[in-house]
Write a structure and sequence with these properties.
Rossmann fold, 15 strands, 5-stranded parallel beta sheet, 2 domains, alpha/beta
Length: 259
């Protein structure tokens, strides 16, 4: 790929790229300030559907990373935008935290557990059997099934956490209906970001730590990709994928001079 300094716009994943297990990845703050000083447009793209942009902003600020709410694009926001584009002012039965409820409300969606157009599943700390049963019965009845992001697990200092993809698999196993996942690797998030920034794919770089979401989404959207090894992917993992990143670096700090 050409020298990265020729890129006009940057898309960065959050977990594993800017932060890791509640700490800032060294150099993340300097990298973002470098983009600002060079007047490069950027968005932080995250599949994390647990938190609102305001909550993410506050968390990043506490860790020393300056990102405005407008510089964040989450899978919850992308899901709401996708549904608004497909069926404006629709109705949805929603499982998830405030992030997905608020995002859908902001685009004019009404929550309905009786006759919704969609069953929408996001990440949450409080899955319960009654909600899962309602979702199963609505999907079985013919409601479209949409999920914010496909990850079956997340990580924490204590170990693995179940993700929305795991619960989606449960509902799919009962109904035999495969959901539509909006978050990465679906390139819809990249296209959203390009539209928000007014950017072209040829002058945009996607930085991520996961081959199966970040890098795949970037490759399928036609943008250059940089894999950082500060997250879940190890260098030895890369060769087994049919698609490859444009570049591999140890961390975001290695990109500061090229931003």
């Amino acid at each position: 790929m050409e020298k990265l300094s020729s890129a006009h716009h940057w898309l960065c994943d959050m977990d594993g790229v800017l932060i890791n297990h509640g700490h800032m990845v060294k150099g993340a703050d300097v990298f973002l300030e470098r983009l600002r000083s060079q007047e490069k447009g950027f968005l932080v793209l995250t599949n994390n559907a647990l938190f609102t942009p305001g909550e993410i902003h506050d968390t990043l600020a506490r860790l020393g990373i300056n990102v405005t709410e407008e510089e964040l694009w989450t899978s919850s926001l992308a899901t709401a935008q996708f549904l608004h584009g497909q069926r404006p002012k629709g109705r949805a039965f929603v499982i998830g935290e405030a992030a997905i409820h608020d995002a859908l409300s902001d685009v004019g969606y009404v929550e309905d557990a009786q006759n919704p157009d969609y069953v929408v599943l996001g990440e949450t700390w409080t899955y319960n059997f009654e909600d899962i049963t309602t979702a199963v019965r609505l999907v079985e009845r013919g409601c479209s099934f949409v999920v914010t992001n496909p990850e079956t697990y997340g990580t924490s200092p204590e170990g693995l956490l179940p993700g929305s993809g795991a619960l989606a698999a449960l509902i799919q196993s009962v109904t035999n209906v495969r959901p539509y996942f909006v978050g990465k690797p679906n390139s819809v998030m990249i296209r959203d970001a390009l539209n928000i920034l007014g950017a072209h794919s040829k002058s945009t770089v996607m930085v991520g730590d996961r081959m199966d979401t970040d890098i795949r989404a970037g490759v399928e959207a036609g943008v250059d990709t940089v894999l950082v090894l500060s997250g879940v992917t190890r260098r030895d993992d890369v060769a087994r994928y049919a698609y490859q990143p444009s570049r591999i670096v140890d961390s975001i700090a290695d990109l500061i001079d090229e931003a």
